[in-house]
Design a protein that fits this description.
The complex is a heterodimer of chains A (about 625) and B (about 450). Chain A is an alpha+beta fold. In chain A, about 35% of the residues lie in helices and about 15% in strands. Among the domains of chain A are: about 200-335, Beta Barrel (Elongation Factor Tu (Ef-tu), domain 3), CATH 2.40.30.260; about 465-555, Arc Repressor Mutant, subunit A; about 565-625, DNA polymerase, domain 1 (Orthogonal Bundle), CATH 1.10.150. In chain A, the strands form five sheets. In chain A, strands 1, 2, 6, 7, 8, 9 and 20 form a seven-stranded mixed beta sheet that branches. In chain A, strands 14-15-16-17-13-18 form a six-stranded antiparallel beta sheet, with no helix packed on it. The longest helix of chain A is centred in the C-terminal third of the chain and has 23 residues, at about 455-480. By secondary structure, chain B is an alpha/beta fold. Chain B folds into three domains: about 5-115, Probable tRNA modification gtpase trme, domain 1 (Gyrase A, domain 2, 2-Layer Sandwich); about 155-215 and about 395-455, tRNA modification GTPase MnmE domain 2 (Four Helix Bundle (Hemerythrin (Met), subunit A)); about 225-385, 3-Layer(aba) Sandwich (Rossmann fold). Chain B is about 45% helix and about 15% strand. Chain B contains 14 helices and 13 strands. A seven-stranded mixed beta sheet of chain B has the order 3-4-5-6-2-1-7. Chain B has a six-stranded mixed beta sheet with strand order 9-10-8-11-12-13, sandwiched between helices. In chain B, strand 9 and strand 10 form a beta hairpin. Classes of the chains: A alpha+beta (about 625), B alpha/beta (about 450). Chains A and B meet through helix 17 and helix 20 of A and helix 3, helix 4, helix 5, helix 13 and helix 14 of B.
């Protein structure tokens, strides 16, 4: 007898999305957390978004996830980054009021139908014949379900490290899931170790902001969600200061206490989040490093020292911080620390997020070797969706690399694996110009709608946008501009070249220095559109050639992705594959020829051999019929 | 159908004589053939019936020059070997003509076929029998492995260094651009337009230079055809012998004893020289000799380099002047032979008629001045400082094709830059260029850009 359809273990960013997707798609869902006061906690940076990560948040929104809406309720500072570098890499980044973020998410979870939220420690997975059937808890309660989604973050065998002190804990001040890690190993899942670290938090009252540069919030009405109306809010600035030669001296003098030297921390850490110790030792010529001083919320004095990550003994952390202008008298409220934890190397994962070894077990977030709230949330959403689809006997949802950053993320994990906590970067996406943050709704909302995660009304909103873009593009192409005196003057004024024969308004808009808002200088017939539509029209006109080229690359790419490899294929019998290719293919078991071709160590000749074998199989199959 | 790009390859065994075929297969095969093929009737290949042959010329669209007279066979999908549109261009069989035609086809954006790829497509598209599958696999396997060895051999030393330099240039440029995009709030200096322009130009220049060596690459692979010409009895055969350091041709005092064209191969500084000792070119009634003379004239036309042998003692005769006029468009070295005898040579005449030709004094019989002659020939091939800087040579069509594409993409980058489009657009073509370069080095774009970002910049908070 099952108590639930789906159990989600862990209520961080992955767990919340997984549980919500599951409940919203109609499954009776149980969400278990170690600490019900720590739902959707941001244990590190108090911010969401940035290049690629911000894209992911908007994709989550387009698919019907919660993260975008939640940060929109909770942000206290927001900016659009990379505005000069091209539309594909425009990126929203927001500072969150951490507590508000948690409260808002908790509220959403508690109001959600089909969803029970309970605080407990899960000690064991109940695994029967390589199939998970439920979980055991520390208080003796067992729960049965058809699918279990593990989103345990850094708590599997977590160890917190500050200086020479190392103790068991999933994060500072929290339990670690030690028994659960053992239970996974017993079920045949391989675990490895990663580490990550977070900077100290200090008391706002002890900081001299006059020595820092202010970074105010953008005044533009920008937000992550395509669907939730924007709310007015209070915003607060961030501050920028720099380390100096004194900081360098402190680090160099005490480097023997750094985990870099002591070797107390096991496992690989992320290259993109180096500690200040590492930055100073690796780039000795650089005498100063940025420190962003970021508020953790409106109702707390805690400030996050972005750029001063360290897990040196607390006394040296004080010295490091106080060497920085504006922080001379800073008081630490929570010291920085490192945490090391077990993760499941993701070659054991299917693109659906289901484990290959234990059936019906899904994993998402840091447990899969990633880092970042956004990466976690995306996986949680996909794990939730796919667990439900599997339960209902439907086709899984596997996003392609050309569909979404989420597709790139999961494909990278299951195909290439990762040697460090994986972070999404725009440079990981080969079709970046298509995967823009401005068109995530156009790319993905129909999927969210089909799944029942996007309402009819929301879906209609996106379809209306799609139609408006098409209609107005046509208008721009139809409106003719002749080189009258007025037109030539307008061109000159905008610093654009001359015009000899009549052209369409679209052709005028193609010119580099001409924006949509300038078009009324050329004609009174400019279609009146929202800024959102105007942006789409500009992008699609100005960069058409590049977009078309990428679209045709995508077509070629898709052909290989659509060539499926049967699950039961026996690579050992394919003598003509090189040994390395055979082993890698056997381990990763790609679902398509396209995925196979991205595995390192599988050559184009191996792919040819594989394709010929697939054709043989297909013809053989036909003969058997 | 799994792959739908258009591919081409030389599908006849490489060798002199007979007919050679360049085969194009894929959705754009006919369209592309149409663009490079001209015939008198101006009938479009797109409109002709399947399985028809058409006589005409292949024109190189880059310079509008005729490459060869050909017969083009058009076969339309699906009733073809690969089940795709196929065009076969039947041309003269020499490897140079074949390669030129293939080069023109590839320039149109066609991909060079992998070993066994036509057959592979035939199989994958359901055209040929299951029993043949294993044979295709063997072919792919063996050819690829051979190809790999060849590629690795080629990549040892110079070429791999040069290509890797281009690759490093592009990777470092990309890493910098990507770092500013992915870490906008870190302290990475943005390029100013001038720096960025210079970096793009730099990579483009290196790629172009490497491509220019491909002609010399051909010379290295196939050798240089050198014709020895001169009046009878000025010492042509002695010269050849001296070059060969052994007696091959018959040397007598009677004019006209070298009746046939003699071909020998010698090696100067690693360059294979196919030396053709021509029968003396002169009016003759002797039938046998006449054939020899005609052949000589033909070879003279074909030669990459001409060694004009003069008799220093006899001076320049009317016949010599006639010869000089005949070869004035050829790269020539004047060999003033028999310098052990009295010098009656009027250098001004040579200077007038063959102003570019270096003059080397030799005594072929005495084996003197031969080293100097070899130096001059070698210098000509490597034109000046080439040998000193150990220039790299591209000898493989596949490499040339890939580098050519890299160059095209870098030109696109340059254009994007000149239009002042945002940096993201520059990265698009840079990536494409890197992919093309990767086909030479055998690397695919993967983590290396990201690795480079973290190696070059202090990033992250």
């Amino acid at each position: 007898m099952k108590n639930y359809d789906i159990i989600v273990i862990g209520a961080g960013h992955a767990g919340c999305e997984a549980a919500l997707a599951s409940a919203r798609m109609g499954c009776k869902t149980l969400l278990l957390t170690l600490n019900a006061d720590h739902i959707a906690l941001m244990p590190c940076n108090p911010s969401i978004g940035g290049p690629a990560k911000g894209h992911i948040v908007r994709e989550i929104d387009a698919l019907g996830g919660e993260m975008a809406k939640n940060i929109d309720k909770a942000y206290i500072n927001i900016r659009l980054l990379n505005t000069s570098k091209g539309p594909a890499v425009h990126a929203l980044r927001a500072q969150a009021d951490k507590h508000k973020y948690q409260f808002e998410m908790t509220k959403v979870l508690q109001k959600q139908n089909n969803l029970d939220l309970k605080q407990t420690v899960v000690t064991d997975l109940i695994v029967d014949n390589q199939q998970v059937t439920g979980v055991k808890t520390i208080t003796g309660m067992d729960y049965q379900a058809f699918k279990v989604i593990l989103t345990t973050g850094t708590s599997l065998n977590g160890k917190v490290i500050i200086g020479d002190i190392k103790y068991t804990g999933g994060r500072q001040g929290e339990f670690a899931a030690t028994d659960l890690a053992e239970s996974l190993t017993e079920a045949g899942i391989k675990l490895e170790r990663f580490q990550t670290a977070t900077p100290p938090r200090i008391d706002k009252e002890s900081v001299d902001f006059s020595k820092m540069t202010i970074h105010p919030s953008s005044k533009e009405k920008i937000q992550f969600s395509f669907f939730q109306p924007r709310q007015e809010r209070e915003d607060v600035p961030c501050w920028l200061t720099y380390t100096n030669h004194k900081t360098k001296q402190v680090v160099e003098d005490n480097i023997e206490h750094s985990p870099l030297t002591t070797g107390i921390v096991e496992g690989e850490g992320p290259r993109y989040c180096p500690s200040i110790d590492r930055k100073i030792m690796r780039f000795p010529d650089k005498n100063s490093h940025q420190v962003f001083v970021e508020p953790e919320g409106l109702h707390t004095n805690e400030l996050y020292l972005n750029g001063l990550t360290t897990s040196m003994p607390e006394a040296f952390q004080v010295d490091i911080i106080r060497s920085v202008p504006g922080l001379e008298e800073a008081e630490i409220m929570r010291p920085g620390y490192a945490v090391e934890y077990d993760y499941i190397p993701p070659y054991q994962l299917q693109p659906t997020m289901e484990n290959k070894v234990v059936q019906d077990l899904y994993t998402a977030g840091q447990i899969n070797g990633t880092s970042g709230y956004e990466e976690a949330a995306a996986q949680g959403l996909m794990a939730g969706i796919n667990a439900v689809l599997a339960l209902k006997g439907k086709e899984p949802l596997i996003l392609k690399r050309s569909d979404a950053y989420i597709g790139v993320l999961i494909d990278d994990l299951v195909t290439k694996g990762t040697n460090e906590p994986y972070r999404m970067l725009t440079s990981r996406a080969e079709y970046r110009l298509i995967l823009r943050q401005d068109n995530a709704d156009l790319r993905l909302s129909s999927i969210g709608h089909r799944l029942g995660l996007i309402s009819e009304q929301q879906y209609q909103q996106v379809e209306d946008k799609r139609k408006a873009i098409a209609k107005n593009l046509e208008k721009l192409n139809d409106i003719q501009i002749t080189p009258t005196k007025k037109v030539l003057e307008a061109l000159k004024e905008l610093g654009s070249g001359g015009l000899k024969k009549p052209v369409s308004l679209a052709t005028i808009l193609e010119r580099p220095k001409i924006d949509y808002q300038n078009l009324d200088k050329f004609t009174s017939e400019v279609p009146e559109v929202t800024p959102e539509i105007a942006e789409q029209l500009e992008i699609r006109t100005k960069y058409r050639g590049y977009i078309d080229r990428q679209l045709s690359q995508v077509e070629k790419f898709k052909q290989r992705e659509d060539k499926r490899i049967p699950e039961e294929i026996d690579y050992q019998s394919l003598d003509n594959l090189r040994k390395e290719a055979r082993e890698k293919l056997e381990r990763i078991r790609p679902v398509s020829v396209g995925q196979a071709s991205r595995i390192s160590g599988v050559s184009p000749a191996d792919i040819s051999v594989l394709m010929i074998h697939l054709e043989e199989l297909q013809r053989g199959g036909r003969q058997d019929d | 159908m799994y792959v739908t790009d258009t591919i081409a390859a030389i599908s006849t065994a490489v060798g002199e004589g007979g007919i050679g075929i360049v085969r194009i297969s894929g959705p754009e095969a006919i369209e592309i053939a149409e663009e490079i093929f001209k015939n008198k009737k101006e009938k479009s290949l797109i409109e002709v019936d399947s399985y028809t042959a058409h006589y005409g010329q292949v024109i190189d669209p880059r310079n509008q020059q005729v490459v060869d007279e050909v017969i083009t066979l058009v076969m339309k999908a699906p009733k073809t070997y690969t089940t795709e549109d196929i065009v076969e261009i039947d041309c003269h069989g020499g490897p140079i003509v074949l390669q030129k035609i293939l080069d023109v086809v590839l320039h149109m954006g066609v991909r060079l076929a992998d070993p066994g790829e036509f057959t592979k497509r035939a199989f994958l598209n359901g055209r040929i029998d299951l029993a043949q599958a294993e044979a295709i696999i063997d072919l792919i396997r063996s050819q690829t492995e051979i190809g790999l060895e060849v590629a690795i051999d080629q990549l040892e030393g110079g070429l791999s260094n040069k290509v890797n330099q281009i690759k490093e240039d592009i990777v470092s440029l990309l890493a910098h651009l990507e770092a500013t995009i992915d870490f906008p709030e870190d302290e990475i200096e943005d390029f100013n337009p001038e720096q960025l322009g210079d970096r793009i130009d730099g990579a483009l220049k290196k790629t172009s230079e490497l491509l220019e060596t491909s002609q010399r690459g051909k010379i290295l692979r196939e050798g240089l055809e050198v014709a020895i010409v001169g009046r009878p009895n000025v010492g042509k055969s002695s010269l050849l012998n001296a070059l060969l350091r052994e007696n091959r041709a018959i040397v007598t005092e009677v004019p006209g004893t070298t009746r046939d064209v003699i071909e020998e191969v010698i090696n100067i500084d690693g360059i294979p020289l196919k030396i053709i000792d021509t029968a003396g070119i002169r009016k003759t009634e002797d039938k046998v000799e006449k054939i020899g003379v005609e052949k000589s004239e033909k070879f003279l036309k074909r030669a990459d380099l001409v060694l004009l042998v003069l008799d220093i003692n006899q001076g320049i005769s009317a016949e010599d002047r006639e010869l000089m006029r005949l070869i004035k468009s050829k790269q020539t070295v004047v060999v003033a032979n028999k310098f052990d005898l009295d010098n009656n040579l009027d250098l001004e005449v040579i200077d007038q008629l063959l102003p570019q030709a270096p003059v080397v004094k030799t005594s072929a019989i005495e084996n003197q001045g031969i080293d100097k002659l070899e130096d001059v020939i070698s210098d000509l091939v490597f034109s000046g400082d080439i040998r000193a800087s150990n220039q790299t040579l591209i000898t493989n069509m596949r490499h040339k094709n890939a580098l050519d594409r890299a160059r095209q993409r870098l030109l696109d980058v340059q254009q994007t830059f000149e239009r002042r489009l945002p940096n993201d657009f520059i990265t698009i073509d840079l990536r494409a260029a890197l992919e093309a370069v990767g086909e030479v080095t055998g690397d695919t774009i993967g983590e290396d850009i990201i690795d480079q970002i973290f190696a070059d910049f202090c990033l992250g908070k």
